[in-house]
What does this fold into?
Amino acid sequence: LLLVRIEASIDTRKKRGWIFTSNIDDSESECQLDKNVEWSFVFSNNDSDNFDEQMNNLIKMINS
It folds into this structure.
C-alpha cells in the first residue's frame, strides 16, 4: 500500500488565487491528514518543482 500526498505551500496557493476561508480550510476534514500519517511519497506541487523527476521516483517506488 502506498500513501501519496500532493501538497503546495501557502504562498504558492495564494499565487494561484487561493484565499483562506475560516471554518472550511481549518476544519477537521481538511486538516486531519496533515499530521500522524506516514506518507509513502509526497509530491511537492510548487512552481519550481520538477514534476517529471518526482513522477519517475514514484514509479520506481511502485515497481520495487
